[in-house]
Amino acid sequence: MNRSRTETIIVIVLLLVAVVLLSLNFTSDERDHEEDRTEVPEMETDTPSNSRVDGVGVATDHPVATEIGMEVLDQGGNAADAAVAISYAISVLEPQASGIGGGGLMLVHAPEEQDPVAFDYRETAPNQNNKPDPGIGVPGFVRGMEKVNANYGSQPIEDLMEPAIELAMDGVDVSYTLHTHLQNAYSHIEPQTADVFFPGGRAIEPGDPLVQEELGRTLKTIQEEGPGAFYHGPIGDRIITRIDGLGREDLAGYDVQVRHPVRATFAGMDVYAAPPPAGGTMLVHALQMAERLSLDAWADNPSEFIKRVGGIARTAYEDRVQTIGDPAFVDVPLTNILDSDYADNLSKEFLEDTGKDPLPEDMEGGETDGNTTHFVIVDEDG
Predict the structure, then answer these.
(1) For tag attachment on the chain, is the N or C end more exposed, with fewer CB atoms within 10 Å?
(2) Whether residues 58 and 151 fall in one domain
C-alpha cells in the first residue's frame, strides 16, 4: 500500500466494552482562528466538536481531540494519521468512553480503492480453556492502530502518539460528562485507580486537572517499544497477572480483521456502514425506512417528525438485536438483511407499531449508557 498522502474518509468507533456501532451525522462549521480554538475549555463543551477548513474536516466528541486531528492534517498528515492520533488522544480525554484496553472498528476509503475497507479491532473472546471475569475480552485497540497506520498512514505512529502522552502526563480538564460517569462508577473502580479519579474519596470535579501518569508511562512504553510491549512484553505481563483467565496466548495471538463494509443504497447514493459484529445495518435500515415512509413529509410537524424518527430508530435497533451477532460464532444472513424487501418489511412493522413508545425502558439489549465514542475525518483529497 502506498503510504503517500491519500484521500481517506474515516468513520471510527472506539469501545470500552462490547456495544453497538452508533450512527453518525457529520456537520461542520468554519474553522476558528488558531488563538480562538486553543482557548476552548473542555468542561464547557460536552458536545461534539467539529472543525473544517479548505475541504478538510474533523468531527469528534471532544474539542481537544478535534484540534489534534486538525493539527495532524495541517502538518501534512492524511486522515489515517489524524485517526490514529485522535484515537490515542481520546483514550486519555474520554477514559469513560475509550481506551487502549478496549477496541473498535474503522471504515477507511482511499482514492485508489473502489470501496472502503473495515478494520475490525474489537475485543475478542479468550481461549475456550480460559474464563476471565465477565465482560473481559482481548483488547484490540493497540494492534488496530498499528494496522491502520501500516496500511494507510503517512506519518510515524510514534509521532502520532505524542499528543496523547503529553495529555496524560500534563493533565486534562475534567468534563461534566466524565464527572457524571465517575459518580456512577465508584463501586467498579479498583483501589489502584481510585486515587486518580477519586481524590479524597470523591469523584474528581469538573474543571479540575486529571493527571494520568501511569497511563502516560504505558503509552510511552508502547511508543518506544512498539505494540509488542502491550501484547507479549512488560505491559502484557502485567495484564495477565491482573486478570484471571486471560492467558499469554490470548494477547499474543490477537489479530486485526479486515472486512468488507455493509453496502446499501439511500436516495440514489451508496451507503457504507460497519459490518458485523458492529451494528451498521441499523444505520442502513433507518435510512431506508425514512425514505420509504417519506419522513421528510413531516418536517413541518416537529412533534410527529420526532416521534417517527424515534419509532424508526426503535424498529431498526430491535431488528439489529435479533439478527446481528459476531460472525466468528454465528451465521449472519447479510444478503437477506440487506435485500430491499427486508427494508419494506421493516417499514410495515413500523406502521403496525406506531402506537408504541419509541424508546421503551424494557427494550431488548439494555440501556445505552454512552460508553462509546466516534469521529469522522476527511482530508484535503476528499
Answers:
(1) N
(2) yes
Assigned domain for 359 exists: no
pLDDT tens digits along 49-101: 766 567 889 999 999 999 999 999 999 999 999 999 999 999 999 999 999 99
Same domain, 109 and 187: yes
Note the pLDDT tens digit of each residue in 317-363: 999 999 998 888 888 989 999 998 999 999 998 888 765 554 444 44
Q: Are residues 312 and 246 in the same domain?
A: no
Same domain, 294 and 189: no
Question: CB–CB of 230/222 below 8 Å?
Answer: yes
Report the catalytic residues: 372
Indicate whether 197 and 231 sit together in one domain: yes
Question: What does DSSP assign to residue 357?
Answer: -
Domain that holds residue 29: 9-258+370-378
Q: How many CB atoms lie within 10 A of CB 244?
A: 11
Number of domains forming the structure of the chain: 2
Is 181 within 8 Å of 188 (Cβ atoms)? no
Burial 301-317 (b: 16+ CB within 10 A, else e): eeeeeeebeebbbbbbb
Interatomic CA distance for residues 32 and 52, integer angstroms: 9
State pLDDT tens for residues 268-310. 999 999 999 898 999 999 999 999 999 989 989 999 999 999 9
Instruction: Determine if the pTM surpasses 0.70.
Output: yes
d(CA 6, CA 3): 8
SS3 168: helix
